[in-house]
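User: Predict the structure for this protein chain, please.
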Amino acid sequence: MKRPILYHPDPRLKKTCPPVEDITDDLRSLADDMLATMYAAPGIGLAAPQVGVLQRLIVLDCVKEEGETPRPLVMFNPEVIAASDEMNTYEEGCLSIPEQFADVTRPAEVEVKWIDADGNEHREGMDKLWATCVQHEIDHLNGTLFIDHLKPLRRQMITRKMVKFKRELARG
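Assistant: Here is the predicted structure, written as structure tokens:
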């Protein structure tokens, strides 16, 4: 089931999420809903706070080429356990900040550990778009948006645009 996505500014997007203690059927169902929501948006990553749930859960799938097999990942309690010194800059966007993009510099490669929907622990090295996306989504779990990596003036400008966007949405 597709869920509504929260738009910045929303106080829930700035909260730190507690770890998931027990992977329940409700949380598995949430992960399925999040994947459906992400694909429909369309996006390549989504964090639980973006659908109003303060849990350490993200989903991502950075396979974008037509005809390639999708690779949906469901990550409970994801954590970057190692990061390269080499940095990469990507133009990032966010489903909670539609139509706003900016260059963000992050480690080019990361090693991530997480627990899947069946309770199994995984570790994987990620680079390129996958590394950027997983770091962006983990940021959400810590109450950080990609615009928090920007200079204050640029961040304020985007926030003002989002306030106007939300006002227009509310008017219908």
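The radius of gyration is 16 Å.
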